Batch of 3 targets.
Target 1
Amino acid sequence: MSQDTHNHSHGHDHSHSVGHELPFWRKYIFSTDHKVIGLQYGITAVFFLLFGFGLMLLMRWQLAFPKQAIPLIGKLFTEDGVLSPELYNQFGAMHGTIMVFLGVVPLGVGAFGNYLLPLQVGAQDMAFPKLNLLSYWVYFIGGVIMLASFFSPNGAAASGWTSYPPLSVVADNGQTFWLIGMVFLITSSLLGSVNTIVTAIQLRVKGLSFMRWPVLVWAQVVTAFLLLLAFPPLEAAGVLQLMDRLAGTSFFLPSGLVVSGEALKVSGGGNPILWQHLFWFLAHPEVYVLILPAVGIVGEIIAVNTKKPLYGYKTLIYSIIFLGFMSFIVWAHHMFMTGMGVTMSTFFQATTMIISVPSIIILTTYLLTLWGSSIRYTVPMLFAIAFLPMFAIGGLTGLPLGLTASDIHLHDTYYVIGHFHYVVAPGSLFALMAGVYHWYPKITGRFMSDTLGKIHFWLSVVAINGVFMPMFFMGMAGVSRRLYDQTIYAHGAAAQPLNVFMSYCAWALAVAQLPFLYNMATSWKWGKKIESNNPWGGTTLEWATASPPPHENFTTPVEVFRGPYEYSSNKKPLPQFVQEA
Amino acid sequence: MSVIIPYIDKPNPVTGVTNAKLGIWLFLASEVMLFGALFSTLIILRSSATDWPAHGSDVLNVPLATLNTVFLITSSVTIVLSWASLKMKNLMKFKLHMGLTVLLSFGFLIIKYFEYSSKFHHEHYPSTSTFYAVYFTMTGLHGLHVIGGIITNLYLMGPGSKMWKTEPERFTGRIECAGLYWHFVDLVWIFLFPALYLL
């Protein structure tokens, strides 16, 4: 293997060339360096996360104080400063779309995957650097289209992030923007996932067998397979919905549809449930796309900060693979209420119960790793530990939704929102924040401030639970999830104080992110310098090189001699890349 | 120092494939899911319809589509021959066979154009019925794949073939990948033909 590489390097020069000889725009804008592209993904994704969060902060005003003008900035949106029902729907749809497709996934997969995966397998770049460049810019264009839709005549898409027909087909032009934007985002994901899988499998250095891959590499590869195989059906569905909107077809429009009192002039014969199947065939694996990179990041951080091998590494890996496989056959548990029949519901109820088993195994391996260890409470470790109960709450509250009987009551209420936000917000996002704190020294050569980090952590963990915990109670009180003003119903008015509390917590959560953003921005220049290239005592390959890594990642050849998380009996790390015991 | 990416022209001894070949197979897997979703759409719409609006064998031009099937299958043979010519170190023969492939694919598109225009002439549009919606969407998307293949093959036949002088193995690998993609486009048609025209 090394022989081959050696010959190759003398034979030809396929490489994109040296960092410092390139002009600025080739080095930082249209770079093919996976580290630069990773950072581009990261910065863009953080921007979109803040934007999507901002939309929700405005919506939370309307939810807490219905039909009152938004103070200070309300006049920017409407004449009287009150968030109109139309805008509320647009913000809701775009909040979901932006957070999922433009925020969390690009951060977990695009940023962490791009930056760390080649380093962790000992490669000098991704397998297809130009394709990598293309992936980022296609994603960027998709994002621009989504943002541009706010300025289209009737505003952005307003049919929810799920875009259920027939409403989405008869909706205003924003929906067309949404569909075209999605086609770009899907294409970007496809290119990126091919690149990830090929890099991880083909460019492994000598000695790095599959069962020596760090858990993050495994998580990224399984995620890439989910994106690769689950996204195309949504691309197909997007094309069909575009046809429905632009060419007047009736893929998702049944015969005899009446809109605003008039019969719709279409051929009919379509099936709106078909969209739901195609959509959830992507969107359920998508949930695991959101969570798996987070699971990988948390595994890395726990191993380093407990100075112990991960408990049951192989079981953990098999669980991740099984989870990925199962995620393809649970999608219709989102559709119990569509009347698809008892047989189908029972099947999807069973698979849903089965998929909770590997999730619990993953959590258990992490918990057992913590057990009896001397934990080093760094900021990333705090976030990683918080991830465990948060993800557990998110996962366990999903079980009543996966059981057909209890789903009848809970379906489409705030309970559902509480459930998946626990998985994605204090779950995935906490893990991603942990990753930022953990690998910041790798990327910049400087630490982020510990004090600011702890302020960020404690404020966030309190505020975020204040936002999402009451949702379970509100949902069980029967409040529907997409209501503009729930106080018009007696049961909604009774639960309204919870809404006010959640809104205050959401705004507090926003304030809690300020030290994080300040910390991220200023530590780049003024943070405490790291003393060694491996400040945390990490054992995986990304720590085998300088921090920040040079353009070609590894200046001397690296080789792997052991599993990813091995420590001697006195808790001294035994890095993968060091030969002597 | 410059970045070195291994296994661009020679296969990885552990996996037995080059990067590009693994990449194209993964890409094709995603394409299978894309067309799989469209075929599922056809199956679901047709099986749940009380009265399926039209049958392909009645309203579509089966002889023309048969000729198109012959064109595509032949082009799959010629693209393999073009790859084999490179294996035998014969660039001229490669260009000849690749040229034939491109000609046949143009032939396919021209026939498709006549089919489409005759449908439009009879005022059969995607909005006419669910059958025509499926017909135009699926053959249209397949047609886009044919166009993509033609662009790739023309590039590899023309400016792209310069690589033959500097990196013959890598170039041969590219032709193999283009061939795999082309076979896939062919295969989709082989499913489309009976599903839309015959059943």
Target 2
Amino acid sequence: MSLLELTDVTRSVRLPDDRLLHILQGVTVAVDAGEHVAIVGRSGTGKSTLLNILGLLDAPTTGQYLLEGVPIGTLSNGARTKRRGRDFGFVFQQFNLLPGRTALENVSAPLLYARGRQFWSRTRLAAEMLERVGLGDRVDTMPDKLSGGEQQRVAIARALVRGPRVILADEPTGALDVETGGEVMDLLDEIASQTGAALVTITHDLAVAARAERQYRLAEGILLPISLDTTSEWMGDVPLVADRSSHTERRLPDAEVHA
Amino acid sequence: MTGVVGAVVEAWGELRIHKLRVLLALIGVACAVTAITGVTALVSMLNQSFTEQTERQSGRSVTLNVNAWPQGAQATAPAGWDEAFGRVLERYDITYASRDEWTQAAMRFPDGTRSTQVRAVDADLGVINRIVPEQGRWFTGADEEALAPTLVVNEAFLRASGLTDLSSRPTVQLGDRAPVTATVIGVLRDEWPGAEPSAFVLYEHLHRWIGPDGSGARSGGSGPAVADPMMPVQVPAMLLWVPAERSAEIGESIQRDLQATAPGWQVDVMDNHWDDGGLDRATKWVGIGVGGFALLLGGLGLVNIALVTVRYRIREIGIRRSFGATSGRVFFGVLLESVVATVVAGLVGVVLAVAIIKNIPVERVFGGGIQDMPPFPFSAAMVGMAAAVAVGALAGLIPATFAVRVKVIDAIRY
């Protein structure tokens, strides 16, 4: 049994002119515990919608989503919210740190919604997590006094502080330079593998995607497994080989990948 | 448990972050709570001042005034009237009581001997009528055993004696046929401008040294007045401070008892019970009205600022939802921010009210000191706090509802 399992999931919205916009179509994917999966695709292809569905922030229009074998559709809103807090950690492109709160307060914020020992020990747990991401000396620093890389590390610490089963990273390096982005991904990979959490990364950075064990490409709402030829110079001319013969992709042009 | 504590911690954190807007929003609430609490306290003080002034005139509530009148011209003074007074106190367990007899006594002033009004009472009258001398002191039980009479006089008496204070321990000669020297121990304020000299003397002293006719001719101890063919026969009135809830019952019983002691006399018992609740209620409602209006204005300001702040915080609310904050928790959190803020404002308001009330120049405001300062009205503080919490909850409802309706995905991208 996979940790996450989407089967023929669609997501549609009705536009003001009453037309239906199909954002996701027949998405089928499974993610196991401890696995790192990357999803690439250009803007507007439904990457974030897929991530929101995976993270229980949104619900599929049709199809089935099993979380540890439990159909999500059968859970109440409250139960979904509680599972989201307990089982998922989010890392956003713009960090989304809470303004006016120190790094420590930001990291301990998710623990305000925890129970028992996690709740009562939230300050200690947050400090330990900041230490773990290398910011033990910045606990009382406000986000606006931190560099981009440091802010993202705070965001990672915040995503991991409740010990989630799944880390959902939406363009985690999108606002960082290449070097800092690499460091952040090293950290994310390292902590995810140490904690056994599954890591689902949405990115248009192929170097980031290449770190994953499996890669998918989302195009026009359709999710396709791909493999990146990591032995070639794919940062410039990206060779992509689709696994499905019916959806053969020879390569994803720069303009499309980096959009 | 953790949910409630977490919500409070979260609300407090929000308030800490948004100190300025909280401060601005809460000034009105704090002022309103100060108004409600302060006005209620002032009403209590005003009421107490009014009560004390009334009690200075007619005694504590309830004081029974016992008077006896001869039914015919040939009536003789009832024997054992003073003993009957003692029995009444014992039987009805009355702690404070005084006999009250008015007479005239010859007193020697620097400009000659004058007939001066003397009121013979027991020391308890000081408690019953809240008598506080301007100078010196009122009688005590120990004065009854003194070897010479003592007097508490009015300011006019002191002026007529050519004195301004008691530093010289003044004495005065009483009586004309057998003068006795009395020591002035206290001075009371004149009851009205141009008042004639008058003095209080202990009832026992009157009968021991001065005589009921004020001549100084001793009557041989306490007891009813000696009959004088030229003077109407009289017995001292009795002033008895009794519990208000039993005053009517005790009054009837005392009337029966004393009537039996004084055949041929008409014994009347009157009480000084009055209802001063009207003033209290009216001023209290004015206070609540003023405070309520201020609370309404403060609450509207709070709603306005809270709504603006929630719009500003949509993204933050979305982020918190991604942490697992349920819609109930978001609703409760935003509501609680408002409530926690108004509770703090309420506390500030109560503290302000206490500070103001404790520093009021009571003498100047109420035209006289308050002997028994009423305690700070705890109930008013509670009413103020409850009103602040209610306003906080109402003011928080609208932004909390708004916060819950925010779609998580849209909020995160906001």
Target 3
Amino acid sequence: MSVEFLIEHSPALAIALPLVAAFAAPLFGKLGSFLRNLWVLLMLAFTELVVLLMGQDVLANGARVYALGASVPSLTSPFGFPIRIVLVADAMSALFAVTAVSIALLAFIYSWKYMSDKGGVDKFYTLLLLLTAAMAGLCLTGDFFTLFVFLEVSSIASAGLVAYNRSGKSLEAAFKYTVVSAVGALFLLFGVGILYGKYHLLNMAAIAAEMAISSSFLDVAALSMLASALLLKSGAFPVHMWKPDAYQQAPVNVTIMLVTTALLSLYVLFRICFTIFVPVMGSTLGWLAVVLGAASIFVGVTMALPQKNLRRLIGYAAVAEVGYILMGVGTSMVSISRMDGFAVQALSGGVFHMINDVLDMSLIFLVAGGILYVTKKQDITELSGLGHRSGFLTVMFAIALLAISGMPPMNGFASKLLIYESVYFLNPMLAIIGIAGSMMMLALFVKIFASVFLGAPYRGIVAPLPLSMAFVMCVLAFFIIVFGLFPNVALDLIVTPAVQALLGKAAYIGGVI
Amino acid sequence: MIGRLFITQSGMWNPLSFVVAAVIILVIVYIIRSTGTKKYKKGTEQTVAFFSGGKAPEENVHPENLYWGFFEAMKRYYKWLMKFHTGIVNDYVYSFVLLVVVVAAVLLLGGAV
Amino acid sequence: MISIHFVAVALLISLGIYAVVFRRNLIKIVMGISVIGSGVNLFLVSLGYREGGIAPIFTNAPQTAMVLPVPQALTLTSIVIGLAVTALMLSFTIMLYGHWKSLDTRKRRLLE
């Protein structure tokens, strides 16, 4: 298997490898837990290698299109027949595929010790890998129906993972999550059906090419269903209520996957909007995203303040973080239609903040999981003075706290600066809401920091933190600090190509058809 | 690369300056700390936490009521917010259906057609 | 051109939404989601209906219009996915009933 082969088939392999690993994991589980863990680790590492190769190739040679079932993978529409399952890897989707697979790999390394004393780990890993495959699929899909399939696969796998503890509360969270995402996915399918009925096409690029300068009532109906369903999956303001439930009850290594899935559905939303709908209705769509983003920030932060459970609190903070992304990208959409020159900066801020949000949220959830692991407690009123007992967790929590609340020199500041600055030119009031949200977020996490880590030394039992868990936190903290100290490097290297790919509608359509 | 300016559209920012500032602050803290009193003894009254002149309780004071004033001022908002967050799954779906309607209405009224 | 299928689709979807939003019983919620699913499937199938079209099998086909099989393929996939989701939700319902001895959505909720 040569490198060229890997690169040529990388979009398919990124989905196929985790799928194979998923269903083989229980078989290896029969041979012993170490062998199974080794198998999952090797397969995830291999997938990571494949997506990294894909990313490097895409950055060097431009977008790669992969038609499933074609004799030549790049042959997407033989005889002008554009209904085929098409995977598209451009700089944007490759960036998110790399992010998703990396987070899955880190979540697995974290689970090695975290899950070691629990039952049913074989099936846990099967679902984890299934979710990884679905996430890779969400990133790479080029047509609407595959999008629906991967969305449903990710909902089913993550619902099973949320219910992993099988306590009444986790089952309830999982049930709510399934109901909400099933209704959302059906609405999405309905929207896809409307688009199919009008254009007789399923491929995103082909529909974008077909859609005229103006849009009809049917397009708007389809868009409102697609956008609402994807907002639901990402947990923006009026449909955010499943998020704290699921984030609180899932094991933390699952929660970081859920965070990533939420951001991937935002990515899909942006992909659909920028490819198909922004040229037609960019201004309205952008204002809608900005207003929903501002509402998400405000409601998320104010709901987080009175929470007592650490992970539920972070869940509400995650709602606010989604608000920042919506704000940045919405500004970009308005800016494109106004042509006031802030489109690229706002979108860079939004995309950069998506990456930063994955890193920050993952780190803080993993620290929360570490606290749970070493003390077996998660109510912040029961904890205090942990800083005297576990310096490592204290430092990691401080880094994550500064990063989430957008304090320099962490990565959160770099992306939020771009968002604030562009949204200020849209409406100064919105920038004020954003900055006030960040300040409240800082107040929120300082409260937790004081409550959990400061005070008289903790008296209970503190188990030692396993090395694998500490390693994962160190990796995330490393990227947080590097992206914070060298935002230029991150922007030039990964964000700007991704933003250009998202804005370069013509190149995307031309590449696929 | 260190110290390269991070240039945004209408401003710039040097991440390194914050690191330098942090180092300077740490040095100042260290200087102040090293001029501290030599009379410090463990286990005496000096180590007891200062609790507004009163006797500190045995357990820690929890900062969960730290933002009491904020909640008191925003009472009506929070009453509305809690009414909105019922935690019943029916309401989750209801808000989703409302979102679909609102998005469609905004797009139609906003001149998308 | 509104034909009877689309009326049925609208009816089924609104019935399903009514059940999911206003019924408090977990099983009825699951049923409601299934009904929405049926409505969407009916919508997809009726999009693919062509009067006088034949099945797209190329061997010995007469020279008449053939139906594009995409909507049928979509419907089939979506039925299978719907089955998986329904089974998952019902198993959650069984386990929730085992824990709380109640199927009312208002009884147990995660707050605080």
